Amino acid sequence: MVRSFLILFALMLVNSSAFATPNNVNCSTTKMCATAGSDDSEPSLESVKRLEDIKAREAELYRLLGDVRREKATALASRPLHIGIIGFGRFGQFIAKSFVKHGHRVVASSRSDYTKEATAVGASYIPLSDPKRFLDNDGNGIDVLVVAVSILSFEQTLRRLLPHMEGMDMLVVDVLSVKEHPKQVMLDILPESCDILATHPMFGPDSGKNSWRGLNFVYERVRVKGIIDPENRESYSSGPEASASTTFFDAEYAAGIDRLERFLSIWEEEGCRMVEMKCDDHDAYASNSQFITHLVGRILEAQGLVETPIDTKGFQSVRTLIGTTTADSFDLFYGLFKYNQHSLQTILTLRNAMDAVVGELHIRERKDSFNTKAVSVNTSRIITQEVLADKRSGLTN
Question: CA torsion, points 256, 258, 260, 266, in degrees to nearest 10?
Fold first, then answer.
């Protein structure tokens, strides 16, 4: 993955340098530089050779990138993952299609019977009423367990599986719209044999129905082989003994990292914009983007706004927002509020902002009222003075 990034970065440099001013060209004035790059100037032999060299290097980098991508595809195909998805509603089915497409073996489970839907996407199905069989995957085991249930039922679902997970070596992944809550739940209750990855695919069956390319996938590597925050190699142990005996680069740890990277590669290969971020940072950002969008949509829906014969484009956009946010369940909206510690502050900030805007209207109204009264008083004075002047004039005559 690092090698691919370096090649892509080199390609960016090559493409940008093709139109950059060479270091050995002295452009003393803007006019001279403009003249040098104009269509009227004849290309020198040196500039032609330089462009040919750049294009040759670019072609070589593209060739190397192609080699790396084929090498990566071969490596990924050599060891497909057994992925279990618990919660096989619209989103579970949506991601299962891509998992299967990349050659992984998927087993699904849910409260309702989704046997038909699982078969349709190339997955097998084991009902949640038999959690032990689901986790054993009929003897195949599970490498990655994706918990694709609602925010409100997340902890309850994990606790239901917990008696059957002791000693199991698997990567547990959440896909919730809040991150600090599931991260803490997984750290608190999952056995240490389970690795943990917190993720938020910021798209769904509607927004990602045509492609995942360019769509945000937020994630944090939480724990690998007992090590919290593997990027920083902070040791972790839930027992009385410290993890000083843990060897960071032993075969077991390397296998855990390999499994995690193989799972992340699915989203990379689908073209997602991979955003590695701490869970608390995610929640702070999401509160002021995702939650406030749902909040405003719900408020406007409660206001009872309806279509009119003179709708503006702006108002049509407002009604689209209402439709989009209210299409999601109220449970999701409530989960975004209850399990994101930043949400209440977002509500208070919105309320204060509304008060401030309305306050500005009242200030302007009072100012206009005062000016109107002042004009009225001045007009009365002028009229009175004119009447008195007329009376004086009549007495004089």
Answer: -160
